[in-house]
Write a structure and sequence with these properties.
Blueprint lengths: L10 E11 L4 E7 L9 E2 L1 E4 L6 H13 L5 E8 L10 E11 H4 L10 E4 L10 H16 L13 E2 H12 L5 H10 L3 E8 L7 E6 L1 H6 L17
Parallel strand pairs: 1-6
Antiparallel strand pairs: 1-2, 1-4, 2-3, 2-7, 5-6, 8-10, 9-10
């Protein structure tokens, strides 16, 4: 078989930035690295791409190994190629970010990798360029959240207005006025009110809602006025 000569072969890897929401806090799933270099330090879940895999298949395999998850929202972020990003061998890594509802999947986490959820704003220092990957993923998430319904991937199928407000506050790191947020979100007419109430988190109870995905696709701009400060999208 003909091969390219005169060129050094590089390693290809993928790293998964897994965001989760528990109804109150935005979190990041990390593992404790089990081998050198940087053994016992915190890391994103990652691995090398096999000979018979595309980047997407490798990312899905790695996500499944850690969480047992299939078919969750996952998006390619960027490829990181600094020649010295990995001190052992030249490795180019493509980062993906995934969004999950923690309560739906928390029992499936594979603890063989010493995986733990951390508050996104209080996460430990990560190995290599993983902190850079996380920061870029946060920036992308803020941007996409203003134009696509991806935040609803972090919520259960039925959610309350306070839960949705809390998620927006976590994503954009800001505090929103309760009445204004409720008024704005309901004025979009993109949420379908349910008969049931969440009576666990308040005495009065808050009605559950579902996203009308068909209407959302036709009028996604209706959510743009929920963004507290457009300048924060690119911070």
């Amino acid at each position: 078989m003909t091969k390219y000569s005169g060129h050094k072969h590089l390693l290809a890897a993928v790293d998964c930035i897994i965001f989760g929401f528990d109804g109150y806090d935005l979190k990041l799933l990390l593992i404790k690295r089990g081998f050198d270099p940087e053994k016992h330090k915190w890391s994103l879940m990652g691995g090398f791409v096999n000979d018979d895999e595309s980047l997407e298949k490798a990312a899905n395999r790695i996500l499944y190994q850690l969480t047992g998850l299939e078919g969750v929202y996952m998006e390619q972020l960027q490829t990181f190629s600094d020649p010295i990003r990995d001190p052992v061998e030249r490795t180019i890594s493509t980062a993906y970010f995934a969004l999950i509802d923690i309560h739906q999947y928390e029992k499936r986490i594979n603890h063989d990798y010493n995986a733990e959820w951390f508050l996104l704003k209080d996460r430990p220092d990560l190995i290599f360029d993983h902190d850079q990957m996380v920061r870029l993923a946060q920036k992308r998430l803020r941007y996409k959240a203003a134009m696509h319904p991806i935040l609803f991937e972090l919520l259960p199928d039925k959610f309350t207005i306070p839960q949705l407000q809390c998620l927006y506050e976590e994503i954009y790191d800001t505090k929103l006025d309760n009445r204004n947020f409720s008024r704005k979100i309901l004025s979009t007419q993109l949420l379908v009110k349910q008969k049931e109430k969440d009576k666990f988190n308040s005495k009065k109870g808050a009605f559950y809602y579902k996203l009308n995905k068909r209407k959302y696709r036709a009028n996604f701009q209706a959510f743009l006025n929920l963004i507290p400060n457009p300048d924060k999208l690119l911070v």
